[in-house]
């Protein structure tokens, strides 16, 4: 069917009292940004619904993109018909016929936002229901859980028909909860944590530590490509790369091996906190899950978290690996995450890290280092770029290489 608009129903934000307008405005802004590749669209955001007028744009492509905008409970592709019941009944019949199967049940749901219309909701339900029953002999009406629910909405500018309700991404519009720094490795967990942070309305900036020449260009590109996978949820995402080689070499040289991991992590967190401070971030997010590996015990979190008073939020903290993997597959980061490019933490991982590091020891060992100048050097080498949805980084190098041959 040739749809004329997508009708969007808001998610949780409907309950947000006074902030409602801000939420709706932000959602409309995000929808426009996420759908910028469809120039003909017109987005109209009202208090209870949003209408995305298609003006000839491909409804399926628009809906595919819309599925990745947080703050939407569900949406329905709709057809606009003149305010003439003869025209409405033909379109209604066509819609039902298209989806008809043997033994199908249906129901008409009419809603009037224009109460001046000459028929009321019951009359419209009866009229359309009767017409459909007469023209599709094998169909039955069912009030509870029908196979097909035909929604009819009478508005001042026309009558809108829809028969499908498609789940949206849920959550809150990105940007309504402030900004957070996301510590992104190339692993499975942190991209999922990033997705969950965005789902609660947080605008994230990725912070990625890399250690050339110990880590390859491909490892860095993998983190960028993971960011590109997540970017459609936010429009685009800033990617901050932090050179970490000097810190890792120094820590490896001067700190006993049992505390290598703890002290390295303290540096990472310090830098993330500093970046947050400079860039108006309100929190730090990471992909730690309790008990998953040595560095992810409560003792370890205490010893690492010590370096900043800023909240460090861990969206996947209580999830099992299987649960995290399931989300990674849904958001299509899993296959990328399991590509074997070494992360800086893997390469500098000590053979037997302390699973229960002591805070006093971590502080003592660290005090041997010139923390300020190490951090200053790392900060001097950061690079910030903006990554858009669908950008690729991993193949780029291989292609460039192939061209040289
Ligand atoms: P992930 O799957 O996200 O890599 P993990 O289970 O492998 O997590 P660790 O390697 O211990 O766990 O890392 C814990 C968290 O520390 C990561 O989820 C990430 O938030 C952060 N982190 C680790 N390495 C880096 C890195 N190179 N750059 C930025 N953050 C990192
Ligand atoms: Mg990891």
UniProtKB/TrEMBL annotation:
<dbReference type="GO" id="GO:0009229">
    <property type="term" value="P:thiamine diphosphate biosynthetic process"/>
</dbReference>
<keyword id="KW-0820">tRNA-binding</keyword>
<keyword id="KW-0547">Nucleotide-binding</keyword>
<dbReference type="GO" id="GO:0000049">
    <property type="term" value="F:tRNA binding"/>
</dbReference>
<dbReference type="InterPro" id="IPR049962">
    <property type="entry name" value="THUMP_ThiI"/>
</dbReference>
<dbReference type="InterPro" id="IPR054173">
    <property type="entry name" value="ThiI_fer"/>
</dbReference>
<keyword id="KW-0067">ATP-binding</keyword>
<keyword id="KW-0694">RNA-binding</keyword>
<keyword id="KW-0963">Cytoplasm</keyword>
<dbReference type="InterPro" id="IPR020536">
    <property type="entry name" value="ThiI_AANH"/>
</dbReference>
<dbReference type="InterPro" id="IPR003720">
    <property type="entry name" value="tRNA_STrfase"/>
</dbReference>
<dbReference type="GO" id="GO:0002937">
    <property type="term" value="P:tRNA 4-thiouridine biosynthesis"/>
</dbReference>
<comment type="function">
    <text>Catalyzes the ATP-dependent transfer of a sulfur to tRNA to produce 4-thiouridine in position 8 of tRNAs, which functions as a near-UV photosensor. Also catalyzes the transfer of sulfur to the sulfur carrier protein ThiS, forming ThiS-thiocarboxylate. This is a step in the synthesis of thiazole, in the thiamine biosynthesis pathway. The sulfur is donated as persulfide by IscS.</text>
</comment>
<feature type="binding site">
    <location>
        <position position="296"/>
    </location>
    <ligand>
        <name>ATP</name>
    </ligand>
</feature>
<feature type="binding site">
    <location>
        <position position="265"/>
    </location>
    <ligand>
        <name>ATP</name>
    </ligand>
</feature>
<feature type="binding site">
    <location>
        <position position="287"/>
    </location>
    <ligand>
        <name>ATP</name>
    </ligand>
</feature>
<dbReference type="GO" id="GO:0140741">
    <property type="term" value="F:tRNA-uracil-4 sulfurtransferase activity"/>
</dbReference>
<dbReference type="InterPro" id="IPR004114">
    <property type="entry name" value="THUMP_dom"/>
</dbReference>
<dbReference type="GO" id="GO:0005524">
    <property type="term" value="F:ATP binding"/>
</dbReference>
<dbReference type="Pfam" id="PF02926">
    <property type="entry name" value="THUMP"/>
</dbReference>
<dbReference type="GO" id="GO:0052837">
    <property type="term" value="P:thiazole biosynthetic process"/>
</dbReference>
<dbReference type="GO" id="GO:0009228">
    <property type="term" value="P:thiamine biosynthetic process"/>
</dbReference>
<keyword id="KW-0784">Thiamine biosynthesis</keyword>
<dbReference type="InterPro" id="IPR050102">
    <property type="entry name" value="tRNA_sulfurtransferase_ThiI"/>
</dbReference>
<comment type="pathway">
    <text>Cofactor biosynthesis; thiamine diphosphate biosynthesis.</text>
</comment>
<dbReference type="InterPro" id="IPR014729">
    <property type="entry name" value="Rossmann-like_a/b/a_fold"/>
</dbReference>
<keyword id="KW-0808">Transferase</keyword>
<feature type="domain" description="THUMP">
    <location>
        <begin position="60"/>
        <end position="165"/>
    </location>
</feature>
<dbReference type="InterPro" id="IPR049961">
    <property type="entry name" value="ThiI_N"/>
</dbReference>
<dbReference type="Pfam" id="PF02568">
    <property type="entry name" value="ThiI"/>
</dbReference>
<feature type="binding site">
    <location>
        <begin position="183"/>
        <end position="184"/>
    </location>
    <ligand>
        <name>ATP</name>
    </ligand>
</feature>
<protein>
    <recommendedName>
        <fullName>Probable tRNA sulfurtransferase</fullName>
        <ecNumber>2.8.1.4</ecNumber>
    </recommendedName>
</protein>
<dbReference type="Pfam" id="PF22025">
    <property type="entry name" value="ThiI_fer"/>
</dbReference>
<feature type="binding site">
    <location>
        <begin position="208"/>
        <end position="209"/>
    </location>
    <ligand>
        <name>ATP</name>
    </ligand>
</feature>
<comment type="similarity">
    <text>Belongs to the ThiI family.</text>
</comment>
<dbReference type="GO" id="GO:0005829">
    <property type="term" value="C:cytosol"/>
</dbReference>
<dbReference type="GO" id="GO:0004810">
    <property type="term" value="F:CCA tRNA nucleotidyltransferase activity"/>
</dbReference>
């Amino acid at each position: 069917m040739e749809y004329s608009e997508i009708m969007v129903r808001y998610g949780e934000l409907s309950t947000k009292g006074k902030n409602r307008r801000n939420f709706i405005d932000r959602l409309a802004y995000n929808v426009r940004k996420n759908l910028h590749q469809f120039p003909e669209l017109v987005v109209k955001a009202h208090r209870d619904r949003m209408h995305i007028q298609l003006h000839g744009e491909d409804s399926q492509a628009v809906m595919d993109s819309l599925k990745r905008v947080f703050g939407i409970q569900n949406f329905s592709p709709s057809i606009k018909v003149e305010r003439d019941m003869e025209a409405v009944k033909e379109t209604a019949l066509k819609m039902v016929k298209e989806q008809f199967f043997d033994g199908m049940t249906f129901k008409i749901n009419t809603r009037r936002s224009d109460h001046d219309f000459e028929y009321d909701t019951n009359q419209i339900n009866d009229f359309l229901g009767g017409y459909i029953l007469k023209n599709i002999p094998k169909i039955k009406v069912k009030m509870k859980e029908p196979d097909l629910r035909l929604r009819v909405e009478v508005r001042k500018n026309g009558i809108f028909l829809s028969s499908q309700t498609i789940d949206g991404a849920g959550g809150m519009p990105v940007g309504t909860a402030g900004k957070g720094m996301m510590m992104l490795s190339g692993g499975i967990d942190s991209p999922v944590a990033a997705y969950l942070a965005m789902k609660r309305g947080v605008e994230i900036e990725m912070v990625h530590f890399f250690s050339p020449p110990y880590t390859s260009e491909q490892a860095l590109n993998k983190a960028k490509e993971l960011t590109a996978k997540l970017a459609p949820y936010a429009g685009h995402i800033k990617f901050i790369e932090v050179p970490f080689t000097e810190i890792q070499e120094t820590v490896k040289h001067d700190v006993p091996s049992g505390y290598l991991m703890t002290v390295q992590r303290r540096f990472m967190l310090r830098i993330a906190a500093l970046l947050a401070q400079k860039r108006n971030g309100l929190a730090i997010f990471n992909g730690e899950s309790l008990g998953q590996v040595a560095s992810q015990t409560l003792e370890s979190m205490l010893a690492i978290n010590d370096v900043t008073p800023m909240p460090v939020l861990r969206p996947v903290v209580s999830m099992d690996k299987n649960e995290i993997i399931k989300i990674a597959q849904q958001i299509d980061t899993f296959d990328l995450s399991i590509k074997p490019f070494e992360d800086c933490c893997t390469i500098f991982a000590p053979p037997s890290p302390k699973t229960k590091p002591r805070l006093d020891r971590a502080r003592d060992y660290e005090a041997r280092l010139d923390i300020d100048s190490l951090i200053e050097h790392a900060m001097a080498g950061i690079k910030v770029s903006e990554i858009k949805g669908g950008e690729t980084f991993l193949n780029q190098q291989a292609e460039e290489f192939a061209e040289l041959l």
